[in-house]
Amino acid sequence: MAETLFSFDKRNYRDCQTLFRGTRGQEYYHGDFWIEDGSTTIDVRSERKAVGAISIIRQRSAANLFFRRSRQHIREDATDLSVLWFVKRGELAVSNQCGGKVARAGDFIITRSMSPFFMECRTGDDGTHEVLHVTVPTHILRGFVRQDFSTGLFMAMERAELALAETLLTEVFTDDGRIGEASARLLVDTALGLIGNAIRASEDMAPPRQSIADRRLEDVLRFIEVHLSDPQLSTAMVAKGCGISPRYLSFLLRLRDTSFSELVWEQRLAKAKAWLSASDPRDISISEIAYGVGFKSPAHFSRMFKRVFGANPREYRGESVVEEAVAATPAEPFADYPAPYPVSSSLLQ
C-alpha cells in the first residue's frame, strides 16, 4: 500500500520546507521547496510506494509548487538521484544551465540531483497539477538508460514504450498487496527497460535500412531459437523453415563468424547452464534439462558441458547450490574460526 509522504493545506503549508522529504527526511534530496502564497485553495498531497531503493510517488496539488536545487545544496548533500516525471495534469517547467523546458500533460522528463535546476509545478485549467514520478539512484538507472542525462532529458509521450512504462508503474503504485515484492521489482525493472528503449529509439527515428541478408539472418536466428529443444534440428530443417538454401544459410551464418553447429551447441549449453543455476535438483533432473535444450542423451550433454565449462553438470549444480547455501546462512559468533572437522566434497554431490 502507498503511504503519505506529505500533505499540506492552509493550516500547515508554510511547513513544507521541513516536511517535503517525509517525516524521516529520507526521500528526495536537499533543496528549497515552497508553495505559492495567495492561492485560493491549497491542497497538496504526495503518496509514496517503495520498491527496493526506488520510490514511485503520485503528487497532486491545487496550488503552484516550486523547487530549487543549487550548487550549495549539492555540496551539502551529494545524493545522486534521478527523477522520472510523467506529467498527467497541468505543467512542469524545468530550467537549468542548458535552458528551460515546459512539459505538459502526456510529456516525460528526467531530472538529476547532481545538476542545479529550478522547477515549477503549475496547475492546469482545472486548477489541478498531477504527476507520477519515480526516484531512482542514478547508478541503477544507468543500467537501463545509457545515454547522457547529466543535465536532464525531455521527451513527448508519443512512444508506446513510455505509455507502457507509466501503466506498469501505476499498477505497482496502486497495488493493494496482491503483487509480491519480487514481482513488483520485476515490473519496475521492466518499466525502466522500456524507458531506456524509448530513449534509444528516439535518438534515431530513422534507423538504417536493413539489407535482405540482415533480414534473412534474423529469420534464421529466430527459427533456431524457437526450435532449439528439437534434437533433430539441422541445417536442412532451418533452411526449409526459412525458405532458403542450405548453402545460403551457411553464408548468412558466416556473417556472424560462426557455423551452424557452433551456434546451436553454444546456445544449448548457455541455456542449460542458466537452467542448472536457476533450478532446484528436486524439481528437475539433469537429464530433463539435457533433453529440454535439445541433447539426444545426458551423456553427450555432460561431455560437452565439461569440455566448455570445466565441470560436469552435476558438479556445476552442486557448486551453485553450495554457494547459495553459504550466502543465505547468517554469520555465527565463531564463523571466523576453522571447522574442527573437514567436510568431504563428495557429501555435497
From TrEMBL:
<dbReference type="InterPro" id="IPR020449">
    <property type="entry name" value="Tscrpt_reg_AraC-type_HTH"/>
</dbReference>
<dbReference type="GO" id="GO:0043565">
    <property type="term" value="F:sequence-specific DNA binding"/>
</dbReference>
<feature type="domain" description="HTH araC/xylS-type">
    <location>
        <begin position="218"/>
        <end position="319"/>
    </location>
</feature>
<dbReference type="InterPro" id="IPR018062">
    <property type="entry name" value="HTH_AraC-typ_CS"/>
</dbReference>
<dbReference type="InterPro" id="IPR009057">
    <property type="entry name" value="Homeodomain-like_sf"/>
</dbReference>
<dbReference type="Pfam" id="PF12833">
    <property type="entry name" value="HTH_18"/>
</dbReference>
<dbReference type="GO" id="GO:0003700">
    <property type="term" value="F:DNA-binding transcription factor activity"/>
</dbReference>
<dbReference type="InterPro" id="IPR018060">
    <property type="entry name" value="HTH_AraC"/>
</dbReference>
<protein>
    <submittedName>
        <fullName>AraC family transcriptional regulator</fullName>
    </submittedName>
</protein>
<keyword id="KW-0238">DNA-binding</keyword>
<keyword id="KW-0804">Transcription</keyword>
<keyword id="KW-0805">Transcription regulation</keyword>
